[in-house]
Each structure stands twice: as structure tokens, then as C-alpha cells.
């Protein structure tokens, strides 16, 4: 079967309008061939847009039979190039965006079943319509898809209370690399009947199979939320505040973000409408949020008790408490503007790392001087989900130095030193963004040979011909 | 290498006193060769008791090289025969009980690392000594081990709030079937660097590798707990109370057990010291518990609000609220006495099933009449973790009928009908006890061929020679 015959067979399976190919359709294909940060651009024999799980299974079977490598793609908002084809032009992109139905909401079971191509925001909305909460929340929620969230085990801002995508998923429907459809869509809280297939596909970035639908956990909607920004002296003080907040608020503590003063200054500088939140500068800020199932009054009392204790113990220097939803959103907007302010300030060396929560301050104290020795004057843009031990530990050119020149000279040695320090602190070089193409080789570098060998055995067991998203997660 | 040479090689690796074998040591070996309910009894070439992970790896490597099948064993409290050798006398039991050290407690990271042979109660105690809670709790906690809990993905009475063993585990150390040691002992809340090996070993009942240590999550210790027994008319009313409790108490709701009136009567009958909790009989009872991080006062207020609303809506007919720890323990003791009272009453047909929480009442309403048609007059002993959709749906001989005769006649058809109904309600035939030998074939019967094939591929990928706990989980 030559390329034309293959493409006509695709037409027959999913309809010609959903098989994008050739120079005529280059414009329509383009958005599927680059990641959104434009770090990776590939080519493709075709972009295939099946309508449902059955069409997806049929098209995967066809590709497998003709040894055509497939690149599954959701909202294409990934940060590691996991959904971009290679430059050979021999791969196909399978876009899941047309699989966008909410199949079932079972409010009494606190579950929802949705197709992989549903936008995260639509899943959140479907839960809300049923009087429930789907707590996964991240900046790209208006354009990322549930399938992509699960394939990359997405994190976001409420992991501390609700867990990451893995912990929110009860069941999956997956098309295997040979086109077999596995129906694992279970809405069960307990099921001990054999190997945990579900968690193998979550975070596998489409290299073991192609997620077409998922059953996820819902939660009661909280009655109130309290947001505050607290000023502290050091990351160690932020950790002390975290521990106190966990003691006082237990499972109600929903978010706990660390933001260095330089991050806030960067936001104020590039977005002057966003005011620096404190009367005077403080070295570190913490954005913390409780969500309460009881009442606004109870949430406020709990919060006041927490902050009083923190002041009394000298942990906190100042605090701004949101008095309403608008003020709460303004505080979160500050936090979410950091990556945008960074982008305004020019390219920088990004790291999405995690260490044990107890070691975050040690990690920063040990690593900052190492970075300074390699790249004197580099500016540290340190922020992230402290409650999860997850830092976006980014490094910016010194004042007045050209960003491109800085990256060319320092990206490799700085990243090596940061990752070595992460490794020494028993951490991970990819906390929530996955590996894709970007960190594939680095991950293999830091993993033990035993672990890499086990991963390879899994890949071979499920995809012996290497047709499902080859070149991602594992080195070829 | 003949048997004697093999055993001497074992002696050299772990010391002769820890290699039990032969007629001389039959008495010492016996406890390792039967499960505690004495449903399965096997034989063994030897019982090997390594002292640490390195010795375990060495002994596994030796067995693998000589194609000797291994049966890992923890506290030997399993309910499905997963830790009992076959009758050939060619297998060895590897007891992990000497791997009993708490390696590390990191209170600020809310983690603890312990070896597989640690008793669950000792892990709980180590957490408590550090001012933290390890919430996994089940009847066998004084004799079961952490490794066994993870290998069977144990559930227990606090799954509703804290999750099952899987959700409590962050990292593992595992000896692979060829003797390679995988160090996956990570104390990280986020780590997206490839395939989720950890969850593959959890619930695999020692068929993919042998867990030697684990890093588990700890939690702040609650300040107070509230326990009550509420009388309701039907399982549907119990579900309405569950929904209300989840709305009012959110994540503070820790336990929610359904107990039919017949179960309480059975306990009162066989253990007269345990009084029936209500002034008059009610068809169903619910044991519910909140654990509160704030205060006794707050817990009581929340609880009173919940019960007032439940009475006002006509969901609850009566309620007994524990006024102190002793009364709380007495209510739990009632619940925990059900299996003991059943044992006093004679053998019965046991099922550990789960369905979506929303379908529990439908399941009972649909299945009770089916059982009655097959075995008229059979008495239903229905209780379990309603919050997880998990019922111990047990069937007892009619009044005056010999239990053995009843089982001989009805066990097979009743279990088939119950499992068929579970399957029709999108449930599972093993919610928290695993498969072992007991439900291995039944699970394969209800799973799709695609799923069984995927499980088999995993087994072959990790244990190509089938030396690690063969005959468990998957049919040979």
C-alpha cells in the first residue's frame, strides 16, 4: 500500500474532511505540527481527526498494520514536545479533539466520564452543572484536553488538596498500539482484581496507548474559599508556615505557592496595573488558599487563627487577606502573571523540578550559589507549588545581558548543575511537565539502569513495533 | 545443582538458621505453609528468611538462576491464598518478616520509609511518635505487614478520607524476579519522569516483583473524632445520608459503614455483652465517623448540624452519638464483631464486592431476590464500606440448616449469580481482598480478553520465566 492508498483508506474510515494532508492543506495542518511554544516543529504524512473511540481504534489498527508511527495530540499545550511529530514526514498526528463528549455524570457516585478531547474547562463546567467540583485546574484549562492532562499527569494549583491528574482518575478507555480497545472505564473506589493498567497509561505521554476517555473523581463544591498573600523572610519560614497551615487546616488547605520577591517585582515591572501586594518589600511571599465545605464565616475564623499563630510565632512579617472573590482572583492573577512577565523579560533557563517538601529550602540555599558561580549575576526567578515540593526554578540573564547570548553560553552548564543538585536532594527533574522530547535523555541520564530497563520492557510489551509516539519519554 | 547444594547456597547467603527445611523443621515451617483461614495448605522446599533487601535480592537471584519458584510472604493474613505455596514442594517461601526496620521518618515532608516486614501497627506507631498519622487501618493491623498491605492494595476503614494503600504510597524498593534491585524510594508529591512502575507492583500480590521497602504518606494528626451510629430505613436512605455527610463535612468524613439489622442481631446474639445500639429495631444502621483537625467543639457542632439536617429531612430514624473515646470504640467494636459473629454462626458464602457508590442500593435490591430464588430462606449478612461502594455481601444458611450442607449445595450457584449481578452493575468481584488463588479464575472470567492479554504481557515482561509467585492473580 503506497501513501495515497493509505490516505484513501483513512478517508474511508473517518471521512476525507478529517484526513488533512498535502501541500493544499499545509495551512490547516500547521497548528498540529508545532508545539505552542514553537520549540519543536515537525512534518506529518497526515493529520487524522477521528470522531470517536471506534474510529480511533480503526485508524490505529490501520496505521499499525502499515507500520506508520502515530503521534497522539490533545490541545497541544504541552511543554515538552510530547505531541509534536518528528521531521521525517512519515508519522501521522492523531488529534483527539473531536472526541469531546461528556458521556456521563454520576453526581451520587462523584464521578464523570468524558472523552479525551474534552477541554478541561468543559469538564469543570459539566461538574459544576451537576453541583460538583472537578478540581484539576491549570493555566491552559481553556485549551488543554482531559486526555492530554492524563497523558502528562498534569498538576496545577490544587494538587495539595486533591492530588494530580493520576489521583483524580478512576478509569480509562485506551486504544492499544495494535488498535485493540481496552474498556477500563470504571467508576469504582476499590477494585483489586489484578495489575493496575490505568496508572501505566497515565503520564506515559501516549507512548503505550492512546487514551480515548476517562472516568474521573468529582468532589462536593466548597462553600467558601479564603485566599491570602503572606510575606516571609526565607523559604525555610515558608516551610514553617506550610507545616502550621497543615496542622490548623488539615485537608482544607488547597494551595500553597512560594513566590520570591524578584518574581513579584518582575510582574509589577512588566504589568504596572498589578500592584506589589505589600506596603514594603519582603524577601519571599506565600500565596495560600483554603477551601471550606462549611461556610464563609468558618473559613474566615480558621484563617484568622492560622495567621494570628503565624504572626505570634514570628513566621510571617505581613499578610494581605482577600476580602472577596475579586481580591482572591487578583492575588492568583499575580501568581499566574509570573510566567508571562518572564516571557516579557526575554528567554530564560527553565526548570520544573521537585524535591521532598522538607528539603526545598536546603535545595534553594545549596543551588543558588552554584548557579552564581557558573553564571555570575544571573537573576533567579524562583516560584512554584511549595506544598508539593515543586519549584519552577528559572534562571534569567543578568541585568543588561542579552538573553540569547546568555542562554547559548549558560543553558547547558546551568541546567546540568541544577539537575545534579536536584538529584543530590532526592528530587525529580520533571515534576509536572513530563519528558516528551525535551527531557527524555536527561531523565534516562539520572535514572538507574534497572529503572530504564524496566521502562523499556514495558514499552516493548505494549508496543513491540514502536509505532506509538516513538522517540518520546524513552530514548530510541 | 541438586536440592542440597541449593539449600547450602541459601545458607551461605542468609545464614543456615534462616533457611528452614526438611522433616526436622516441619514444625517451624508449618505456619508459613497455610493461610491463616486454613483454606490453603502447601509444601515448600524451604522457607527463606533474609535479613534485608540485599539478602533478599541475592536469594531471589539464586532462585531465578535455578528456576526455583518463589512465594513472597508478609504477615500471612491474606484472604485469597496469595502467599501460600502450591503442593509440589518445589517452591520456596520468602518471608519478609525480618525486614522490619523503620528506615526514616521525615515529619516535615509527611513521609515515612519502612521495610516490607514492618507490622502495620508498628508503622502507625512510628508515625504517631513523630506527631503524624499513618491512616491505613484494618482488623489485622497487629499481624499484617506493610509489604503485604501494598502487595494487596489493602483498604480498611479510612479509605473514604485517605485512600487505600495505593494512594498512600509514594515510593517502593522492589527486588525484580531476576534479583535486580529497583530503588524507587521517592518521597515526592510530583514526579513525571516516565512510566509509573510503583503502581504496577502495588496490588500485584508479589507476582511481578518482591516489595522490600516503601515510602508512604503521613498526615497531621486530627484533633478530634466523632463517631455515631444512625438508624435508617433502607440502603437508599443510607446513600442519602452519605451524600449529605459529604456535603456538610467534605474531606473530614473519614468512615461510613453500612450494617444491616441482621448483622447487629447476629452480634448481639453471639456476644450478648454488645448491646443492640437502638431502643427499637431498625432495618439498617450506618456507622459514621468524622475526624477533625480543629477541635472537639468544632467536630461536635459540625456533627450536630449534620444529624439535625438528616432528621429534618426524614433520612435518619434514630441516632446514637459517642460521647467519648470509649463509646466510639464500642461502636466500632460492634462493626468489627460482625465477621467474628458470622464465624460463630458457622460457615457462610462470602463476597467482597464493590459497585459505584450510587448503585449500592440498586445492587442490593436486585441481588437479594436472586439469591432467595436460588437458596430460599438464606440469610443475608450485608455490611461494608458504603462510602467506597464496597460491600461484604455474605450469604448464610437458613435458620436450622447445616452450614456445610448449605455451602456444598449453594456456594457455586449463589456466587455465580452474585458476581453476574456485580458485573451487570459495573462492579468488581474483589474490592479489597485481591485475587490470590481464590478468585484468580473468576477475575479472568469477568475481564475482557483485551485486559487479560495486557495483564499477561506485563507478567511476561517482568517475569519471563514465571518464577515469581506463579499461579496467583493470573491463570497459569
TrEMBL record, chains A, B:
**Cofactor names:** FAD
Q: Name one GO biological process term.
A: respiratory electron transport chain
Q: Which Pfam families match?
A: FAD-oxidase_C, FAD_binding_4
Q: Where is the FAD-binding PCMH-type domain positioned along the sequence?
A: 40-221
Which UniProt key words apply to this protein? FAD, Flavoprotein
Question: Does ATP-binding count among this protein's keywords?
Answer: no
Q: What Gene Ontology terms describe what this protein does at the molecular function level? A: catalytic activity; FAD binding
Family under the similarity heading: Belongs to the FAD-binding oxidoreductase/transferase type 4 family.
- Any idea what this protein is called? Hydroxyacid dehydrogenase
Q: What is the lineage of its organism?
A: Bacteria, Pseudomonadati, Pseudomonadota, Betaproteobacteria, Burkholderiales
Amino acid at each position: 500500500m503506497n501513501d495515497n492508498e493509505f490516505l484513501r483508506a483513512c478517508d474511508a474510515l473517518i471521512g476525507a474532511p478529517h484526513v488533512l494532508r498535502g501541500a493544499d492543506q499545509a495551512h490547516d495542518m500547521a497548528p498540529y505540527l508545532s508545539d505552542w511554544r514553537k520549540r519543536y516543529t515537525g512534518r506529518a504524512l497526515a493529520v487524522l481527526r477521528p470522531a470517536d473511540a471506534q474510529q480511533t481504534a480503526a485508524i490505529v489498527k490501520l496505521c499499525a498494520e502499515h507500520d506508520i508511527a502515530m503521534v497522539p495530540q490533545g490541545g497541544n499545550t504541552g511543554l515538552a514536545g510530547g505531541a509534536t511529530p518528528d521531521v521525517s514526514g512519515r508519522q501521522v498526528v492523531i488529534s483527539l479533539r473531536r472526541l469531546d463528549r461528556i458521556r456521563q455524570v454520576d453526581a451520587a457516585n462523584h464521578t464523570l466520564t468524558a472523552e479525551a478531547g474534552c477541554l478541561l474547562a468543559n469538564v469543570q463546567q459539566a461538574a459544576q452543572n451537576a453541583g460538583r467540583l472537578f478540581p484539576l485546574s491549570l493555566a491552559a484549562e481553556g485549551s488543554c484536553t482531559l486526555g492530554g492532562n492524563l497523558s502528562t499527569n498534569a498538576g496545577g494549583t490544587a494538587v495539595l488538596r486533591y492530588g494530580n491528574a493520576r489521583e483524580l482518575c478512576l478509569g480509562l478507555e485506551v486504544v492499544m498500539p495494535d488498535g485493540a480497545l481496552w474498556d477500563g472505564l470504571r467508576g469504582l473506589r476499590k477494585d483489586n482484581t489484578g495489575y493496575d493498567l490505568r496508572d501505566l497509561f497515565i503520564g506515559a505521554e501516549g507512548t503505550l496507548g492512546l487514551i480515548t476517555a476517562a472516568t474521573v473523581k468529582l468532589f462536593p463544591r466548597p462553600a467558601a474559599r479564603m485566599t491570602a498573600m503572606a510575606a516571609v523572610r526565607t523559604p525555610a519560614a515558608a516551610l514553617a508556615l506550610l507545616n502550621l497551615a497543615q496542622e490548623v487546616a488539615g485537608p482544607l488547605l488547597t494551595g500553597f505557592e512560594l513566590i520570591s520577591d524578584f518574581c513579584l517585582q518582575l510582574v509589577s515591572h512588566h504589568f504596572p496595573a498589578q500592584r506589589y501586594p505589600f506596603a514594603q518589600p519582603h524577601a519571599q511571599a506565600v500565596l495560600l488558599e483554603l477551601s471550606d465545605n462549611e461556610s464563609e464565616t468558618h473559613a474566615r475564623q480558621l484563617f484568622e487563627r492560622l495567621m494570628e499563630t503565624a504572626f505570634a510565632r514570628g513566621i510571617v512579617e505581613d499578610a494581605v487577606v482577600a476580602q472577596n472573590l475579586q481580591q482572591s482572583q487578583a492575588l492568583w492573577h499575580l501568581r499566574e502573571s509570573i510566567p508571562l512577565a518572564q516571557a516579557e523579560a526575554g528567554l530564560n533557563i527553565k526548570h520544573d523540578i521537585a524535591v521532598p517538601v522538607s528539603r526545598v529550602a536546603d535545595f534553594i540555599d545549596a543551588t543558588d550559589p552554584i548557579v552564581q558561580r557558573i553564571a555570575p549575576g544571573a537573576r533567579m526567578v524562583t516560584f512554584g507549588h511549595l506544598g508539593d515540593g515543586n519549584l519552577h526554578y528559572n534562571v534569567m540573564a543578568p541585568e543588561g545581558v542579552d538573553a540569547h547570548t546568555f542562554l547559548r553560553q549558560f543553558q547547558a552548564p546551568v541546567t546540568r548543575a541544577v539537575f545534579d543538585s536536584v538529584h543530590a536532594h532526592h528530587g525529580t527533574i520533571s515534576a509536572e511537565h513530563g519528558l516528551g522530547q525535551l527531557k527524555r535523555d536527561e531523565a534516562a541520564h539520572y535514572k538507574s539502569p534497572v529503572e530504564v530497563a524496566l521502562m523499556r520492557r514495558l514499552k516493548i510489551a505494549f508496543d513491540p513495533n514502536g509505532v506509538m509516539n516513538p522517540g518520546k519519554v524513552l530514548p530510541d
